[in-house]
Amino acid sequence: MLTKRIIPCLDIKNGRTVKGVNFVDLRDAGDPVELAAKYAETGADELVFLDISATEERRKTLADLVLRVAEKINIPFTVGGGISSVEDVDILLQNGADKVSINSSAVKNPQLINNLAAKFGSQCVVVAIDAKQIEGKWTVHLVGGKVPTELDLFEWAREVEQRGAGEILFTSMDHDGTKNGFADEALAKLSGMLNIPIIASGGAGTMQHFTDTFKNGKSDAALAASVFHFHEIDIPELKHELKKQNIPVRI
């Protein structure tokens, strides 16, 4: 049985790690390279870096950060934020990233998923989907959750898989930063209909929430930010608890 993965997420703005609630009210959470090294040492299975600042210098700054992180850690890491071309991905992978995450650019240009999968392989293409429930329907949002689309979460997820994505990172905007648990019902539906791994994101607050998303949400990995950054949950303790619950994890 494949082990379940624990993935700290580092939202990057102006070279610093930040964290908010429901995608707003950002506060500083530290230096991303130092945090990355600490997480690699304490048992994180992978890391995700999302650059949420959109400056002209962003691409070069992000590539430099990726290089600095790659020198410090020995676990896979995914980089996202403003990636919109094969060239963007080429630079990040050359600098040491293992995977890239695309979100708004995939919705605006779905062919990008096909192009990236064809050039770099599905295993390094993660499509991030941010969605919230509107009148009972999970609606995909763009630009850090600010712009609603007409897309249905499940229809878009199926298309993403068909186009060659290797993984889906699903963030429930309704749950993000609330620490009330992951959107396990939606996650279970995604896992049941797709053949690629699903990463749960948005809502981690307790160790039980991780147990729940692996058991009830059928998630392949669970991503969280503030509970790790601010030492509310310790990854080694979390993994021992998951193991006690008969959830396969790498210790």
TrEMBL record:
Please name the taxonomic classification of the source.
Bacteria, Pseudomonadati, Bacteroidota, Flavobacteriia, Flavobacteriales
Supply one GO BP term.
L-histidine biosynthetic process
Under the heading Gene3D superfamilies, the entry gives:
Aldolase class I
Catalytic machinery residues:
D11, D130
Name of the protein in its database record: Imidazole glycerol phosphate synthase subunit HisF
List the Gene Ontology MF annotations in alphabetical order: imidazoleglycerol-phosphate synthase activity; lyase activity
- This enzyme's EC code(s): 4.3.2.10
Q: How does it assemble?
A: Heterodimer of HisH and HisF.
Q: What does this protein do?
A: IGPS catalyzes the conversion of PRFAR and glutamine to IGP, AICAR and glutamate. The HisF subunit catalyzes the cyclization activity that produces IGP and AICAR from PRFAR using the ammonia provided by the HisH subunit.
